[in-house]
Design a protein that fits this description.
By secondary structure, the protein is of the alpha/beta class. It has one domain: TIM Barrel (Alpha-Beta Barrel). It contains 8 helices and 5 strands, in the order αβαβααβαβαβαα. The mean pLDDT is 93.
Length: 168
């Protein structure tokens, strides 16, 4: 693998400000033990990895990642509905830099309730397109009982804020 200085230079040249992790598909442990220096690099530079809950192997890995690297900015995607709140709400309460996309958050009143309890700052708009129809997340967001300001944070404001913090 290239050195982190080489990686950083390539990221600067292409304006890459986040990573996408596929630990199950690419068969690696996404733990601090296995990727310690990469974790340090991401934390030092505020580079967020995006990881699908279905691709990660579940919320146990997300909790392990954050308990071993609480300063890591982490975006969990495609977390689903129906009971997923029971997994992610304790983590949202504990980890300041954990964010969720809404691509699979198909729960009547879920976005409204989340915003009322935790604020809109932890949610990112996502659709899962082209693998998923974008209609569900669009409908959930447009029908959520939230303010225009909260909707703006979710649609683009939060992601812009996260990516502005990245130090290339």
């Amino acid at each position: 693998m290239d050195s982190f200085e080489d990686l950083l230079e390539k990221m600067k040249l292409s304006n890459i400000r986040a990573f996408r992790a596929f630990p199950l598909e690419h068969k690696f442990l996404m733990t601090r033990v296995a990727l310690g220096s990469l974790y340090d690099f991401m934390i030092e530079r505020s580079i967020p990895p995006f990881i699908s809950i279905s691709e990660s192997g579940g919320w146990h890995l997300i909790e392990q990642i954050l308990s071993n690297a609480p300063d890591l900015t982490l975006v969990v995607t495609e977390h689903g509905s129906w009971g997923q709140d029971r997994f992610f709400r304790p983590l949202i309460e504990k980890y300041e830099n954990l964010y969720l996309d809404i691509s699979r958050y198909e729960l009547d009143g879920g976005i409204s309730d989340f915003c009322a309890k935790y604020g809109a700052e932890k949610l990112l708009f996502g659709t899962g397109y082209p693998w998923r129809n974008p209609g569900g997340p669009i409908l959930m967001l447009t029908q959520a009982d939230i303010t225009i300001r909260e909707r703006g944070k979710i649609t683009s404001g939060n992601l812009k804020r996260i990516l502005r913090r990245v130090r290339l």
